[in-house]
Write a structure and sequence with these properties.
Elements: H1 14-31, H2 39-45, H3 50-61, H4 65-70, H5 74-83, H6 87-94, H7 102-106, E1 107-111, H8 114-119, E2 125-131, E3 138-143, E4 146-152, H9 158-168, E5 173-176, H10 178-189, E6 198-202, H11 206-215, E7 224-225, H12 226-232, H13 239-247, E8 260-261, H14 274-289
Helix pairs in contact: 1-14, 2-3
Length: about 300
């Protein structure tokens, strides 16, 4: 039985509701950017006072809503894409920045063996838990060999989230252990808390693993296209397959599929919703760009 103790699956926290409010505001600002809605209009859309909304958003993003949206405009996204001709160029440039270099230094990816792939997780124990993050609640699963699962919850159905984990690792043993998984979530979303390397264990085809390894080379604050990912893995015509592999990413945020965007600059194609993709990208791009010498200040 997956759900022996119903008390373990509590409703979403206030942090989740706060994120939901922020995500709705970002989506409204993004959709109506040309109209330049003022603070009062946006606050009314998310049903909070202008004062409360401004304070809540600034605490979350570190900057005002209006300034945040500068980083999601087509002009800024195009500039970011044009900064480097390839993922390799972006990764090389990130080597000059200790902050961007964090991913390179602290994330390693291991794929299960072909035999383990066939056995669908047999003999593997996955400890899992639910935790709040700046982008909503997640379920995380971890083995002794690394984080194998990280999904944002798109609704309040925690039982469905556990079923999804079990379906992906069909024969693995699942153990609810939030005390074990909490430090991992903290390190994923706050690089300053990383005291050791974060290991990722994935179960996928050779092609998928090749794509996920390419995604790990995209530094924070950088963007790329599906075309560039295809070129990076040496299969420039495999765009559809690359898109499918990006969409099948089993470890959200840490394997940064959110940094892959369409050539037409539309921010869509995200398993956990386009609103969350905009929130994550704006959050990352703004933090990278306010560093000295990196862009908008």
């Amino acid at each position: 039985m997956l759900f022996e103790n119903k008390e373990l699956y509590r409703p979403l926290t206030a942090d989740q509701h706060q994120y939901n409010t922020i995500a709705r505001a970002i989506e409204y600002l993004y959709t109506h950017f040309k109209d330049q809605p003022d603070l009062e209009e946006v606050a009314a859309q998310v049903h909070v006072s202008p004062f409360h909304f401004q304070r809540m958003f600034t605490e979350w993003a570190g900057i005002s809503p209006k300034r945040f949206m500068q980083f999601l405009t087509a002009g800024f996204l195009k500039e970011r894409l044009n900064n480097f001709s390839s993922i390799a160029d972006a990764a090389d440039a990130a080597g000059l920045s200790s902050q961007s270099r964090v991913y390179d230094l602290f994330v390693t990816l291991e794929a299960v063996t072909p035999q383990e792939f066939k056995e669908k997780g047999a003999g593997i124990t996955i400890h899992y838990g639910f935790h709040g993050t700046p982008f909503g609640k997640v379920i995380i699963g971890a083995t002794t060999r690394g984080i194998c699962h990280l999904y944002f919850l798109t609704d309040e159905d925690t039982e469905k989230a556990v079923r999804q984990l079990q379906q992906l690792w069909e024969n693995a043993v699942l153990q609810y252990d939030p005390e074990k998984t909490a430090p991992l979530v903290e390190m994923v979303f706050d690089p300053s808390k990383r005291t050791e390397k974060l290991h990722v264990l994935v179960k996928g085809t050779n092609f998928q693993v090749k794509v996920w390894n390419a995604l790990l080379k995209i530094p924070s604050g950088s963007l790329t296209t599906y075309q560039d990912v295809a070129r990076q893995i040496g299969l420039p015509k495999a765009l559809q397959a690359v898109g499918s592999a990006v969409g099948a990413n089993p470890v959200a945020f840490l394997i940064p599929c959110h940094r892959v965007i369409r050539k037409n600059l539309v921010l869509a194609d995200y398993m956990w919703g386009p609103e969350r993709k905009k929130a994550i990208l704006g959050w990352e791009l703004s933090r990278d760009s306010i560093l000295p010498g990196t862009g908008i200040s």
